[in-house]
Amino acid sequence: MTVGKICVREVEIVPKHETLQVAAAQMRDRNVGALVVLDDGQEPLGILTDRDVTIRVVADGLDCRQMKVCDVMTELPYSIEEGTPIEDALARMRRGPYRRLPVVNRNRQLVGLLTLDDILDLLSEEFSTIRGILAAEAPTH
């Protein structure tokens, strides 16, 4: 299975020059923990997570009204193409370490977001299916 089959297609984005206060409010209002930052060609530049805001801004007592997303975001060394096998995506996450990877098309434009939770949900479904098969085949004495 490929990442394009399980990634979330509705991704919250934020401009790199937006203030952190506005970005944090967007995360709260949309109930998400991350916003993808795009360039003018819709290619991912970075990702801003609620953890980035907490660790890099709030913990140091910095003013989120003055700071910009580009000051705090995690710059992305790479994204993952939607045709990539899930096993390869998981290996990249492990090497990163990343919990989220932007998913791009062949033109490198954002088409989704793959999270570790997406992979865990898939594995959970697979294990449940296997459990059902084993239970159906088990002797009933």
Write the layout of secondary structure elements.
Blueprint: H1 3-6, E1 13-14, H2 20-30, E2 34-38, E3 44-49, H3 50-56, H4 69-72, E4 74-75, E5 80-81, H5 86-95, E6 100-104, E7 110-115, H6 116-137
Parallel strand pairs: 1-2, 5-6
Antiparallel strand pairs: 2-3, 3-4, 6-7
Question: Explain this structure to me?
Answer:
With 141 residues, the chain is an alpha/beta fold. The protein has a single domain (3-137), classed as CBS-domain. It has helices at 3-6, 20-30, 50-56, 69-72, 86-95, 116-137; strands at 13-14, 34-38, 44-49, 74-75, 80-81, 100-104, 110-115. The strands form two sheets. The chain has a four-stranded mixed β-sheet with strand order 1-2-3-4. It has a three-stranded mixed β-sheet with strand order 5-6-7. Helix 2 (20-30) links the parallel strand 1 and strand 2. It is elongated, with a radius of gyration of 18 Å. The model has no long low-confidence stretch (mean pLDDT 90).
